[in-house]
Amino acid sequence: VSLTSPSRVIEGFDPSRDMIHIEPGVTAERFTIFEESGDALGLTVRITVTEPDGTAISTTIFQGIGLADLGLANFSITEQSTLNEVASVLGATIAPPIGTDGYEVVYDNDGSNPPAITGATDGGGVSFRADTNADDIVGFDASRDALDFGDTSVHGMIITKTPAGEIAIDSPWSASIQIVQGVSYQDVTIESFGVVGNEHLRQDIGGVMSWELGVGPREADTVYVRSHEYGLHEVIDGFDPSSMKLSFLYFGTRERLSVEDSDEGLTISSLPTGQSLTLVGVQLADLAPGRVEFHFDQVMEDNLEVAFGFSQDDVTLVDRTVLLTPSAPEGQSTDGFQTREGVMTPPAGHGEGQDGGGSDDDDGTVDTGPLDRVLITWNWAAQETVEGFDPSGDVIDFGTLSANQVSISEVGDDLVIEVLENGGHNYRFVDVQAEDLSRANIDAAEYSTALDVEGGIIDQLELLGF
User: Fold this and answer.
1) Is the dihedral of CA 8, 211, 66, 85 positive or negative?
2) If you average pLDDT over every residue of the chain, what do you get?
3) Is 173 in a helix, a strand, or coil?
């Protein structure tokens, strides 16, 4: 629905999976959404767009549905005033965020660092290198140009959406951003993202594009957690943790996910956008891991479940092959076909006295809670204190980390494990020495070579008396 859309009747709109995009310029003053029932078309939802003086430009009629059939998940809305209007009509709530609002979106086209052109496309256009430190991309022709992500890792680059609805190439760690000025996700196809070398970046670009274009499931009993939309803070009333699900199928980053209890409820947010949703009246302790859905690599390789305090083996895995995915380099494939039902009961004592996502306590440390297995993983700049580790049965799990991403030392009576190039992130095991440990205390992913490679984890521990 835009300022130039014609009037039309939409038949067969499916609220469980279809979306309505309200484009730039359609502000609340020029927009009306309402329900109407008549003999000719029956129950309908109608959206009218007007001139500034109130003269109607177009009316879009969605036949066979009412307002009660729709939720905010059925809308992608550029203008904040229009988003507020839709939320009001649907009885939903858009509230300010709890905590950070995300980084500021700054446009930059001063010519100091023009975006690089890396080649031509098959359609006769050009490929612009995705570069968060370069100037914005201006003059992108969505009909033939493309973006070139090369082999850039998802841990250093993601895609987001500006408050004006434009595609943005973003850093997960800072305010560095490159905006494709004037181009929305509705203007492009998945081919516009070219060949993406990094598998996880392929997946996350595909998740964002699928959400924006209405591709993939939209189940009525599921709240879909997203990360790419600057300025969007949703408040969800009526979430029942005993029967409803949280899905990360369309989540667009692997970094800086925060899950924390608040007076309002459970708030899930992410940087750099600051996008959040709050489940009113729900606490982390209420959630069963099986009711939180991910696709395979999000947990089995990048451990998004850690923010909830769950084991990767307990959450539900869902299929992502139904989503859009950019092309992979020749001979490479993309995971996401693996499925598994998780554990449908909350872990005993889960959520008690803990904030998910590595939220800092007042003393700058993070307590891990009850032990059995301590997962060593990415959590930018976190200083994690592990108390009560019992070498007679507890395990340090290095997950998918490689040997060159881990440094092990002893400070006084404590064992310190640092995840390198992660902002000074370390785990300090209180009153534990390398000599206290045996091979039974050390684990990693089944395919990992990090333990036994020369200079690896076992070698580092042996130098300390293991």
Assistant:
1) negative
2) 88
3) coil
